[in-house]
Amino acid sequence: MQLDKLRGEELDQLFDAILTLKDREECYRFFDDIATISEIQSLAQRLQVAKMLRQGYTYTTIVKESSASTTTISRVKRCLNYGNDGYQMVLDRLDVEKDKEQD
């Protein structure tokens, strides 16, 4: 795991802070203070790319719809295929939540 190199009190504090957020509005407020617009856009874009890759979209379509570079798409794909299943875990949970809302 890449983050093992950074594991420690500071990163634990960041993750603990994120885990205290109660709703989307609190996330907006916290991330607006802690990260730049560009950093937030990059994170959101990577999640969107992961979702699209999982749904079988081609690189060409992903580039057009997300404006992600092919390098970003390749990195995300590598994480989906060989990573720690973080994208899979989150996307599965989002799918479950979406299904609950539709019921």
From TrEMBL:
> Which InterPro entries does the record match to this protein?
Trp_repress, Trp_repressor/repl_initiator, TrpR-like_sf, YecD_YerC
User: One Pfam family for this entry, by name?
Assistant: Trp_repressor
Q: Which SUPFAM superfamilies match?
A: TrpR-like
Please indicate which superkingdom the organism of origin belongs to.
Answer: Bacteria
Q: What NCBIfam families is this protein classified in?
A: yecD_yerC
User: What is the protein named?
Assistant: TrpR-related protein YerC/YecD
Q: Can you name the source organism?
A: Aquibacillus albus
